Amino acid sequence: MKKDYVSVWLISFTIILILLCLSLSFYYRDDFRLSTLSVKKFRGQIQCSVYANATEKSCMSLSLSIPCSSKEQYNDLNNKLPRLRHELLLSLSRPEVNEIMRKGKLEEAKKHLIQTINQVAKEPVEDLYFDSFSLF
Fold first, then answer.
1. What is the reported pLDDT for 1?
2. Which CATH class is domain 45-135?
3. pLDDT digits (tens, 9 = 90+) for 12-23
């Protein structure tokens, strides 16, 4: 009698585990297609974080999202992300841009950062969004 309960529990646990695996694979089925160029789905935006020295005694942390108009633009920016971070870091290290960021003139800084991104990108970027900005 006791062995019957153990076998029933074991069988039911196995069935539940199989159903769970099947449901997860069905839910994430688009991520498992390896025939496309990218394993990730096209999300429509690139996220980038940059940490820079604002002055000798303070640092700046900037996280931004770049909306992409097409999958080609997304793939281009995603492939150039290390160069893009480098260019943004150099741009933020310039004294005039650094001063703009420290004063909190984000619209002016946004225009400058878009120009920097467009120097790297094939297709021009029209907008970007600040996810976070910190001076410490």
1. 55
2. alpha beta
3. 889 998 988 777
pLDDT of residue 36: 33
Which one, of 122, 37, 130, lies nearest residue 83 by Cα?
122
> What whole-number distance in Å separates Cα of residue 136 and Cα of residue 6?
59
Provide the pLDDT for residue 39: 34
What is the separation, in whole angstroms, between the first and last Cα of the chain?
Answer: 68
Beta carbons within 10 angstroms of residue 67's beta carbon? 15
Burial 38-65 (b: 16+ CB within 10 A, else e): eeeeeeeebebebebebeeeeebebebb
Instruction: Give pLDDT < 70 ranges for the chain.
Output: 1-3, 25-43, 54-55
DSSP H helices, 43-136, are 71-79, 81-93, 95-103, 106-120
